[in-house]
Each structure stands twice: as structure tokens, then as C-alpha cells.
Amino acid sequence: MELVEESPYRFRIDRHDPMRVPGVVFASRSLLPDAGEDRSLEQVANVATLPGIVDASYAMPDVHWGYGFPIGGVAATDVANGGVVSPGGVGFDISCGVRLLAADLDRDGLRPRLDALMDGLGEATPRGMGRGAVWHLSDRAELDAVLRGGSRYAVERGFGVERDLHRCEDAGAVGDADPARVSERAIERGARQVGSLGSGNHFLEVQAVEEVYDDTAATAFGLRPGQVCVMIHCGSRGLGHQICTDYVRKMEQVMARHGIEVPDRQLACAPVTSAEGRAYLGAMAAAANYARANRQLLADAARKVFARVTGSRLDLVYDISHNLAKIETHGVDGERRALCVHRKGATRALPPGHDDLPDDLRDVGQPVLIPGSMGTGSYVLTGVPGAPAFASTCHGAGRVQSRKQAVRSERGLDPRAQLAARDIAVRGASRRGLAEEMPAAYKDVSAVVAAAEGAGLCRKVARLVPLGVVKG
DNA sequence: ATGTCC
Q1: Kind plus residue range of the DSSP H or E element containing A388
Q2: What class of enzyme is it (predicted)?
Q3: Packing angle, helices A140-156 and A184-191, rounded to 10
């Protein structure tokens, strides 16, 4: 794949047939994927062939190989000009994302109670493959209410406070969710997992604010140096996975009928305005609401533990997805256009002044939550005016080793002991699960964030370090 | 990511 270096953190893949637009990769040279092991830059070029795509097929500095689209990919299609929506551009874990809460407690004050707190959080957090949930739903109607109402419904049912919703993307619920477009199998898988963490790279971490880069923004977000925080990273569990599976299959069947050809079957898609496109977006929105309710419920469970063990409160900083497609209005060639913006392993980063921000954040911009690899640290960023890529930035460290490779390179080592040696208390997770998530399997999140900032996609606000982690 | 193959 030929890359042209346009500026220090921006590379271009020139348009060549059948690409409709160029590819743009925001990265430093050392962060670029190794073409021998990772074909994600070919995927960037493949995405550029999609009908209706505008500007460019973008990749963030944490780009790596994914299903059809790269993880760390951003692509927007023009709804009124045959623009398509592709389930592979959202990913299997629909509305996977991050929620950050800030405690009225400093790390020194927590130290004597950290072990008891981690024990409590470990017990209160259902996790792992398939097992357990915070909320056992009474019937299908209640699951439909979750699919329509997201965090808002969870708050209405007593799992949170009204203020939480002001600090959630979409005020806690995506509009246009259509539970009727969710298959029975997806419903069955989702019904018993509402309020559960999952496994893999999902986690609940107790963290401390290690460094503040922007006092004004940090204060507006409710963050200060030394403060204890809780970060929750999880998604839509089996429900989102099943919806992605269902609609990839459906779109593979109807693509030819819509006159669409793609270079990779995993890019299955349909026009946004087609019956299949609208059905997917309705089901995807339902899964997004499920993921948000999931994070709301886990946060509520963590709040109860915090109150009992430490006597302190947890205020929501923000809740934001990094796997979603959204219909948004952006300027294209000097015109305002409705675009279907796919962000897969990429985070929306609204700049200061944006209409969709709550009043108390309007002057500083949207909090962007970037989970690092396990045990290394995480970042809080914010959007910047006039940024490229439809107000998007990176979503995390980005894998460099497959799960299998990671397990192999940890052979003979004890991942739990390595974390304990760095004073990080671990609850849950199998040895294998931990080995798959060790920092060696990931890029350096600080380098990823520096590249994202260098590329003009976002600005650093604060860095958080882990004190304890609950894993699936 | 994921009842890691209905």
C-alpha cells in the first residue's frame, strides 16, 4: 500500500480505481501498521469504494485489522446521494464505549480501603462470557423499554439520577430505535445480560487523575489532580453481536439488487434510505441503547459499593461510544449535508460551541474518553474546532498482537503478578484472559494520543492511572 | 467483541 506523507501526522493513500475518494491515515511513522502482519491499510482503501462516501476513508492512529472496516476507521456517506450504511463499519460490539465517573475522594484517602473497595466492585460486577446480570428483566416489554430508552430508562427505573443524562451522549438514548427490527435470537441473548461487563478488553477500573493538561476543561469536566475515578468500558454483549451477524447476512443477500459491488464481502452494505438500511439503523440504535443502559446499570452498582466502602459519591463525567453509525450534518464542499458517519473504534469529539453539547460543557467541548491497555493509563481528551474526519479521534491503544500471539508471548510469565508488582489490584479474569490483554499486545496509548493531538483531531485534558481493575 | 461453529 503506497502512502504519501502529507504532514507529520497525516498520510494519504491516493485514489485509484475502484476507490471513490482517497484514504487518509492519521499516525506517526512508528504507529503505522506493519503491512506484513496487518492488512488494515488495504481495508482503508476498500472502504473508500463504498457508494456515497465523501471526503476520504479515514484511519485513526490506533488503526488495526478488523471485520471489513479497520478498527480505528471513520467513513461518512451522503444519505441523499446513494450513501450506504454498513454493519461492518460499526462492528460487532454496537455502541461499545466508555463511561467515566469522578469520586469526591483523593487517592491518598482511598489507599487504606482500596482492597475492600476492589472486593466489593468485584462482587457487584457481573462479568465474563454469558454469566450474570445486574438487572433481571420481568418481560419482553421491559427489554423493549431498555432498547428504546437506554440510560434514560435505567434512570427512570431508579438506577441513577437525572443529572447523569446530561452527561451522556444523546442524553442517554439514541432516537429511532426500532426493537421490531431486532431478531428473536438477539433478544434472547440480550435478555439475560442487561447490566454485565463482558470479557476481552472490557473492564471496570478504579483510577486516579495523574496529570492535568488543561485546567479549564478538566474543571468543567469535574476532574482535578489526585482525584479517584471509575472508568467502565463495555458494550452491547450478545445482543449487539447477533444484530451485526443478522444484518451482515441480510445485506450480503440484497447488495446486488441495489447495484452495489464491494471488494470484500465483509463490507456488505445497503443504501441508508433502503428498507434494509433503515432496518439495520433501527436495530443498531436499539443495541446502542442497550449498551448505554448496560453502562448506566454497572455505574449504579459501582456507586453503591463506593458509598458503602468509602462513603463517597460518584459523579458522571461523560459516557461516549466508539462503535456507532450516526446521521449527522456536516459541511461538504461548502454545503450542509446529512451524512451517515461510521465510527468503528473511533470516538466522536465535538468541538467547543457545538449545539449537541450540554450547557455546562459548551465552552470547552465534549469529553473524549480513551481507555489505555490494561494497567498502563487512560486519557481524557476534548474536541477542537475545524478538525478533519467529521469530529472524530482515536478510541484506545489499538492491538498489535492477536489474542493468540499475546498468550504465546506471556507464556511462562504470570500476568497477575506483573500487575500486582505495579500496585494494581486485579479482580476476576482468567490467566488467559489477562494474558490476552497485557500491554505488550497493544500500541502505546500515549503515542496514539500524541499522534491524534498532533494531527489536529483533539486536545489532551487529563491522564488517569489505574489503581485496581475488574476484568471479565 | 462473541453462548470464540447452528
Answers
A1: none
A2: ligase
A3: 50
Inside any domain, residue A155: no
C-alpha cell at A25: 491515515
Among all protein residues, pick the one whose CA is nearest to the C1' atom of B3: A130
pTM score > 0.90 for this model? yes
Which domain, by its residues, includes A239?
4-131+196-244+302-400+442-471
| C-alpha–C-alpha distance, residues A419 and A467, integer Å | 10
C-alpha cell at A419: 500487575
Q: Which nucleotide is nearest to A437 (CA to C1')?
A: B1
Q: Is the CB of A274 under 7 A from strand B?
A: no
Distance A91 CA to B3 C1' (A): 19
| Residue A258 falls in the annotated catalytic set | no
Q: A387: domain CATH number?
A: 3.90.1860.10
What residue has its CA nearest to the C1' of B4? A129
Give me the phi and psi of A258, to 5 degrees please. -90, 5
Nucleotides on strand B lying under 7 Å from protein C-beta: 1-4
